[in-house]
Amino acid sequence: MNDKTKHAVYFPDRLRNVKKNSQTLAAAQPKVMETFEKLHQAAGATGVLDRKIKELMALAISVTHGCDDCIAHHVHDAIEAGATRGEFAEALSVAVLMGGQTRDDLCQSCNRRCGSVFRTC
Q1: Is the pLDDT of residue 113 over 90?
Q2: Counting runs of H as helices and runs of E as strands, what totals does the chain give?
Q3: Could you tell me which residues come within 8 angstroms of residue 103 by beta carbon, excluding any fewer than 6 positions away?
Q4: Domains of the chain
Q5: What's the confidence (pLDDT) of residue 116?
Q6: Distance CA 51, CA 46 (A)
Q7: CB 93 within 8 A of CB 60
Q8: Which residues contact 54 (CB under 8 A, 6 or more apart)?
Q9: What is d(CA 46, CA 86) in angstroms, rounded to the nearest whole number?
Q10: Do 115 and 79 touch, CB atoms closer than 8 A?
Q11: pTM above 0.70?
Q12: 21: closest CA among 69, 63, 61?
């Protein structure tokens, strides 16, 4: 297991399901998913903001939207981009600010899972 794949322990079942569902949708709607993938790559690419910051932004947005699949995906990608425990904590603080107390439960759950990921690194 290399440095990038060892982080896939976070929500492994959810990540597998996200990938499986994406493949199923891609088979049914290839042009839509190809376009989505290009958008994902372009929006997430390093520009003025680096990839890590963009993934932490995506994580905070995912929390405020209550999207568990998105949370799993962006936690994984943020770790791959080099996000630290402290950076996750700050991103989750912004999610609480923008999502209000209603999203604090997701932030707490995400923070616990992030903590377990960082303990395994």
Answers
A1: no
A2: 6, 0
A3: 63, 64, 66, 95, 96
A4: 5-120 (1.20.1290.10)
A5: 56
A6: 5
A7: no
A8: 43, 44
A9: 21
A10: no
A11: yes
A12: 69
